[in-house]
Recover the amino acids of this structure.
């Protein structure tokens, strides 16, 4: 990663290649912003460039941060400082090395998508996390066949005892951050969630920029 | 589906093509068995047969039952009678028309896989739900690039208030069943979970057969 500090503009996505052992902070500059997060093993996660001649082609060895594998092994809904996060092949890909934010980080809810905003009556051109991921990966010449379930940093979707899921505003303060260490060479992708339908993004619900720092 | 009653042997998988409006029951003959369940839109979910010349190729329009989309729209962890289940494109694919079993059906935990059993020291040849899915789909000439997160019928993975996930034995009685109605032409895939590591399968933990009936 040539640049060590990067402003991820509101409603946009970006991906960063990390070597094993490198750390990165996702800084919630305004304290109100949800950041959808994905991690892909590198380089084995993707088919060779030639394979992309067939649209949607994807290496059958596709390996990425898998929330359902993390929930199984960690036996928890919400990941926190010290947790080792795993791929769908049970290999460590990230460690949560610091988390200064209060609250939880959702693992349950799909990335927002063009279709979600269409269902909500917002028209077909609404920025969305699924397209942001696709664009961020395309910038690295990559294309996943599916949108893996995102780890929604700062997103508060508390689960009530009966299993009801609520959506509430983030609890972070301006400057709160989550620090992640790569446990393998990987590509970390982020989307500053463009959601203005659910009460996902805090304050007045306006999507805002966040900072990504390699440290 | 030529046969209307099918015994799914312990530790095995099978897939059934349903037309919109058809219903199917998953019957827990012994009351102790977890059944990993997937649904794929048909026929658009898969690349044309020719595409499979490239191993792992998968139509980018791949559409399947998506637990994270269901959790978002239903705002619940556990799906129950009357719930309309959605694909990753927010299209209805199944309705839960009946459920005679007590307890919940897990939506949080990954399908067991060869790697899971290797991690648990059970060797590389342990039957597993991920391979059962692949085999069941292969019998229909299909191959998914990834194993979607399974809907784990009868599996009890209760979530404590702090977010801790427990694994306990199924609560079903012999003969309890879940009935599903196809809301689009689809392929329903099941695996009688071979797990004998976690306390997933009830009684003495021995995987057992279940019945699949088209009604």
């Amino acid at each position: 990663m040539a640049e060590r500090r990067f402003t991820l503009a509101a409603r946009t996505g970006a991906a960063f290649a990390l070597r094993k052992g490198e750390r990165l902070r996702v800084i919630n500059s305004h304290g109100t912003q949800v950041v959808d997060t994905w991690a892909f093993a590198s380089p084995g996660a993707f088919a060779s460039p030639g394979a992309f001649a067939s649209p949607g082609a994807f290496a059958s060895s596709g390996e990425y941060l898998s929330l359902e594998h993390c929930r199984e092994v960690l036996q928890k809904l919400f990941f926190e400082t010290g947790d080792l996060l795993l791929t769908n092949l049970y290999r460590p890909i990230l460690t949560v090395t610091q988390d200064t934010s209060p609250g939880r980080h959702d693992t349950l809810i799909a990335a927002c998508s063009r279709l979600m905003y269409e269902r909500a009556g917002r028209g077909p051109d609404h920025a969305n996390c699924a397209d942001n991921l696709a664009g961020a990966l395309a910038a690295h010449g990559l294309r996943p066949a599916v949108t893996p379930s995102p780890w929604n940093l700062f997103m508060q979707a508390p689960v009530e005892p009966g299993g009801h899921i609520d959506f509430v505003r983030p609890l972070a303060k301006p400057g709160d951050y989550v620090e992640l260490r790569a446990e393998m060479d990987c590509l970390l992708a982020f989307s500053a969630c463009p959601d203005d339908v659910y009460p996902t993004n805090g304050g007045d619900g306006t999507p805002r920029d966040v900072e990504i720092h390699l440290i």
Observations:
- The CA atoms of residues 100 and 176 of chain B lie 5 Å apart.
- Chain B touches chain A through 41 residues (CB under 8 Å).
- Residues 4-214 of chain B form one domain.
